[in-house]
Amino acid sequence: MSSNWTRRTFLGAAGAVIPGSMAKGQTVQASGTAGPIKILGISCSPRKGKTTAAALQVCLEAARRAGPNVEVELIDLAGMKINPDLAAGIPLEPGQQDDFPKVEARMREPGVAGIIIGTPVYFSNMSALCKAFLDRWMAFRKNFDLRNKVGGAVAVGAARNGGQELTLQTIHAAMLCQDMIIVSDGKPTARLGGILVTSGKDDISQDELGLTTARGLGQRVAEVALLLRKAAI
Questions:
Q1: CA–CA gap between residue 222 and residue 4 (Å, rounded)
Q2: Which of the residues 33, 39, 43, 104 has an alpha carbon 20 to 30 A from that of 175?
Q3: Cα gap 140→146, rounded to integer Å
Q4: What is the pLDDT of residue 73?
C-alpha cells in the first residue's frame, strides 16, 4: 500500500463508496483494486478449535460477506511453540522449536489487509500464548511492516464483565505500536471489538449480543480495509 494517501484522499474515497455512514448488512465494492484482500483471524487460545476460534469464525464470515474481493483465513496457534524469549534477543536452546516464522510468513503475504486477534480472558487479560505472540511482533516493528493494516480484537470470557474490554485494550495497544489502524465493531454498538461470553460448556452460540459484536467487528475490519485499498490506488 502506498504511504502517500492523505486524510482528504481517504475521506474522498469513503464518500464515493459510502454516502453518509455504513449500515450493517451493506457491502463495500472494491472495483479497480489489484486483486482480493485477505483478512486473517488469529486464535491465541491454547485450546484448539474452541470458543475463541469459533468467535473468530463468526468475525471472518462477516468479513467475507463485506465485499466480493474479500478472502478470509483462520490461523489457530494452539499447539504451536511461540517462544517469547526471542523477542528479547535470547536465542533458542538446542532442540527447542519455534513456530512463529510460519505464522509471520502468512501475515506478510501481499494480500493481507486486516488482522483480527482473538484470545480467551484469563485473570482479566489475554492468554500467555497471545502475549508471547504479540511480543514476537518485534519482527515487524523495525520497518513497520504492519503499518496501515486494519486491526481488530476479540475476547471470550466466562462472564459478561469478565475483563474482555481490558483485554481488547491491551491487544489494541500492541497494534498501535505497529502503526496499525484499529477499529471497533461499528454502528450501532461501536464497542471495542468482539466481546463474547461462553456458557461454560465451550459454547458461545447463546450469546447473541456477543455474536453481534463479532459480526460487526469482522464486517468493519473488511470495510475499512477495502476503503484503504481503494484510496491507495
A1: 21
A2: 33
A3: 6
A4: 98
Say which DSSP state 66 is in.
T
Question: Could you write out the DSSP letters of every residue in 75-120?
Answer: EE-TT----GGGGGTPPPPTT----HHHHHHHHTSTTEEEEEEEEE
Neighbours of 182 (CB within 10 A): 18
Question: CA-CA distance, 66 to 72, in Å (whole number)?
Answer: 11
Contacts of 162 (CB under 8 A, 6+ apart): 121, 124, 197
Identify the pLDDT of residue 144. Answer: 97
Q: 3-state DSSP helix/strand/coil percent for the chain, to nearest 5?
A: 40, 15, 45
Contacts within 8 Å (CB) and 24+ apart, 197-202: 197/156, 197/157, 197/158, 197/159, 197/160, 197/162, 198/51, 198/156, 198/157, 198/158, 200/158, 202/50, 202/51
Residue 131: all three cell numbers together: 502475549
CA dist 200 and 213 (Å) reads 19
| Average pLDDT per consecutive 10 residues, the chain (233 residues; last block may be shorter) | 39 34 42 76 96 98 95 98 93 93 97 98 97 97 96 96 96 98 93 92 93 97 95 76
As assigned by CATH, the class of the 36-85+99-232 domain is alpha beta
Q: Give residue limits of the domains in the chain.
A: 36-85+99-232
* Rounded Cα gap, residues 111 and 85, in angstroms: 29
The pTM score is: 0.85
pLDDT at residue 233, as a whole number: 62
* C-alpha–C-alpha distance, residues 153 and 42, integer Å: 9
